């Protein structure tokens, strides 16, 4: 074993330690985010929900005014509160995970600080892995997964730095990163080594980096889309009085003392679920956020496929060969193009377009996990 190889193994070992350290701090950030949601004010949210329900349920009224000269009676136009289409109601954003409480906000700030620390360790692990073999740190699924998670957290922190209202992503993001890194170190792990000959190209830096960035941003859009579907259903229930009815039912049971006799567990679970959903941004805001991030990164995903075709011509002598990875990359592109078109088409906005967005992201996930692990092709570099 020469000195260079030993140094590489040392750097690779340090990279593993940094990734494990990042996972430990991400776990603390996860617990802090949980505390942020738990200590969020329910009473304030309840008052907001009650006020909004009253506003929606307010009946139309007709005002009769008589002319001062005793002439014609004038009927004012009645005020009618009509339901809007899904995702387009005039509903304000929720107060956030902290629910407007100082204690919840404190835990939220602690969670963000821990996320920044974990991100620093995480990025250090990715860079050290690259230095251990003097190449781009995404030559197999383990390296791609760790880099993908680091970029996703980077996008989140950039949005926070730009003062965007994205703290609601914190808990699902940290949860996903922990699952991603756990899968990477336990199932996808590959020892630090050199690349196969086909990957020795500067296109590795261009093509794969674009795929990672695209995937990280598309993940943000998928989270917003999924939460939009839940929040949109919540606003439906809020508009027709079902949210307020749950609170009234529990209050009635408490006043009568029947809450000790009748099971109220599932009733409390439903109320708690509504409490969480009420603190999210409005469905319209989530839908807009998802559309904007997906539309912004779609050209980069398009360039990713084009760059891959150029690299394929340089490596294998053809631009397109219907390799499984090429096919599913194109399917993902078509799925997102369909979503963007549907989102801008009357009659397809709201839930229909949201489901298309989720299907598109599932195509991206299958293109990564399914094709790399279960399908054999020219892109079989998973290392597992």
TrEMBL record:
<dbReference type="InterPro" id="IPR002541">
    <property type="entry name" value="Cyt_c_assembly"/>
</dbReference>
<feature type="transmembrane region" description="Helical">
    <location>
        <begin position="110"/>
        <end position="132"/>
    </location>
</feature>
<keyword id="KW-0201">Cytochrome c-type biogenesis</keyword>
<dbReference type="InterPro" id="IPR017562">
    <property type="entry name" value="Cyt_c_biogenesis_CcsA"/>
</dbReference>
<feature type="transmembrane region" description="Helical">
    <location>
        <begin position="169"/>
        <end position="190"/>
    </location>
</feature>
<feature type="transmembrane region" description="Helical">
    <location>
        <begin position="289"/>
        <end position="312"/>
    </location>
</feature>
<protein>
    <submittedName>
        <fullName>C-type cytochrome biogenesis protein CcsB</fullName>
    </submittedName>
</protein>
<feature type="transmembrane region" description="Helical">
    <location>
        <begin position="17"/>
        <end position="39"/>
    </location>
</feature>
<keyword id="KW-1133">Transmembrane helix</keyword>
<keyword id="KW-0472">Membrane</keyword>
<keyword id="KW-0812">Transmembrane</keyword>
<feature type="transmembrane region" description="Helical">
    <location>
        <begin position="202"/>
        <end position="230"/>
    </location>
</feature>
<feature type="domain" description="Cytochrome c assembly protein">
    <location>
        <begin position="138"/>
        <end position="379"/>
    </location>
</feature>
<dbReference type="InterPro" id="IPR045062">
    <property type="entry name" value="Cyt_c_biogenesis_CcsA/CcmC"/>
</dbReference>
<feature type="transmembrane region" description="Helical">
    <location>
        <begin position="353"/>
        <end position="371"/>
    </location>
</feature>
<feature type="transmembrane region" description="Helical">
    <location>
        <begin position="327"/>
        <end position="346"/>
    </location>
</feature>
<dbReference type="Pfam" id="PF01578">
    <property type="entry name" value="Cytochrom_C_asm"/>
</dbReference>
<feature type="transmembrane region" description="Helical">
    <location>
        <begin position="144"/>
        <end position="162"/>
    </location>
</feature>
